[in-house]
């Protein structure tokens, strides 16, 4: 007898309300001011800024617009910087480290202003985020970080001791945690659909299912070869992030696509949701391979995600792993039914911060490291200002050298199983130090 599927659907929950779909075929312009490669958050945000500055813009995507990370993510407006402050200082210097942290606040404010000013209807809810701690040492670390955010950047952030934890989250799984109130949640596929609508209205031409196969210099321009023919562009901006392919092999050697998977529960009783997620906050935790989770925008389900250690196919084990994590956090959901389980790629690289850079006439906006809801619109827009030439007074802290190439890597992340095993070991040791089982 065949076992039942761990979840009923392998497509994103978000596609129920905002399905991705191809656009009507548009004529291919022989010449354009700017070609943008990738029609996700970054590419469309850049294209919008360029079109409103008077540039002709053609955007190409080898999938349907938004079919990659832009409609598969958790919709949490975290804007994480994965490196802590001492590491930022060591890698980039004190001045750039401070500028990077400050720009995170600006990027989040930019996103919220974009939603309001463009009338983007994507179920945005500024509910804050709870971050769970394991052990007293981790709790104190989160408390110090919250205090630093409050004092240095004016962000409403504070520690939550375990005695008060259930006021924020209906679980005893954590040893307290921290809250920051400048983070919220949105419907990622609706956000993309609305951003696409605004870009098209501004005069941007978007070509779906039209992959770029090569970008080569020609006299005073760049020749962009696509699945439907060639285009001559004065400038090219590449915004492919974790979906970078062989069309830009130099970039592909610098970005590692890592699978992230999300599960969605069936609709839960209102009293259960009120007990488990009383403030409807976005949630995360401090382990390397920890979980991120949230209520659905309508407050009826819980969506939980984490890194997916598989590299091909759609195996059951990653879904079952997330289910086990869900039940450890909320034991009363042991018998809950899962309606959706899906994955998407996030782009990691050696520097682990978003980046704008140029090489041989091509500009790149990429490397969002799993926090593209905030970073992709901001970095894409900043890259557009760079192309327009109006960024002299406001250079981005993320506009500097490209990340280094990864030795022996050409697009297939053969080393990921070893890294996942290392992270699992580090998490297990950290949990033991906290007096918890792994």
UniProtKB/TrEMBL annotation:
It holds the Pfam family DAO. It is an enzyme of class 1 (oxidoreductase). InterPro entries: FAD-dep_OxRdtase, FAD/NAD-bd_sf. Residues 33-384 form the FAD dependent oxidoreductase domain. Keywords: Oxidoreductase. GO terms for molecular function: oxidoreductase activity. Its EC number is 1.-.-.-. This is NAD(P)/FAD-dependent oxidoreductase. The lineage of its organism: Bacteria, Pseudomonadati, Pseudomonadota, Alphaproteobacteria, Hyphomicrobiales.
